[in-house]
Amino acid sequence: ACCLTDNCSDLLAAMAKWGEGDPRWIVEERADGKNVNNWHWTEKNATQWSIDKIQSLLVGFTIDTENYFIEVTNLPKCEGEAVANNRKAKLIFFYEWVIEGEWKGHKKKGDNRTKFRGKFTVNNLSEEFTADELDFDVSCESSSPDAVDVKEFVRKEGTKYLQKQLGIYLS
Fold first, then answer.
1. How much is the pLDDT for 141?
2. Cα(169)–Cα(95) distance, rounded to whole angstroms?
3. How many Å from the N-terminal Cα to the C-terminal Cα in the chain?
4. What percent of the chain has pLDDT over 90?
5. Is the pTM of this model over 0.85?
6. CB of 103 closer than 8 Å to CB of 59
7. N or C terminus of the chain with fewer C-beta within 10 Å?
8. Do 97 and 79 form a contact (C-beta atoms < 8 A)?
9. How many Å apart are CA 114 and CA 118, to the nearest integer?
10. Bridge partners, residue 105, by sequence
11. How far is it, in rounded angstroms, from Cα 132 to Cα 125?
């Protein structure tokens, strides 16, 4: 049973009819199959571009403060996918990444200038989160008191810098 009111019936009567070639329709069948004005859904794989972009944003990135120097040295894992969609000329991005990075760093003050190495992981880089919502797991290869200080700096303050870098990718 149909529950159309008189207003809906008037609206339907005013709409373009199938097969009448109404000029109000922007999209029409084309012999060349061209997607005029990106009206139809298109999907482009942006995975390799994203991997390259994330690598360029993070590898070699340094954090140089008054007390600490940290450098991201490598990204041994950057797994996931990224897709750019276009519908009615509107861009829609979908991406999901798991990133593992390696860092080295040291204290700039004090007698011990030992360089420490560690790792970080980002498990939730996706369109569902903003840069400041990204979670980082941080570890250090050493457990000396100075190493713990450096690791804690990376965990508490360094991740803010890394969030800002990844925010460039997100924008």
1. 96
2. 11
3. 48
4. 56
5. no
6. no
7. N
8. yes
9. 13
10. 70, 116
11. 11
Q: Bigger pLDDT: 125 or 12?
A: 125
Structure tokens at 26: 């922007």
| 1, pLDDT greater than 50 | no
Please count the CA atoms within 13 angstroms of the CA of 171 that sit on its side-chain side: 9
Question: For residue 98, what are its two tokens?
Answer: 């798991």
Tell me the C-alpha to C-alpha distance, in Å, between residue 89 and each of 33, 92, 95.
17, 10, 19
Helix/strand/coil for 110:
coil
Residue located via tokens 């870098």: 165
- Residue 12 above 70 pLDDT? no
Q: How far is 39 from 37, CA to CA, in rounded Å?
A: 5
**Pick the residue with more confidence: 22 or 92?**
92
Sequence-distant (6+) residues with CB within 8 A of 163 are: 131, 132, 134
Any alpha helices (H) in the chain, and if so which ranges? 6-14, 47-58, 145-153, 159-170
- Residue 127 identity: E
Please check whether residue 167 is in contact with residue 131, taking contact to mean a CB–CB distance below 8 angstroms. yes
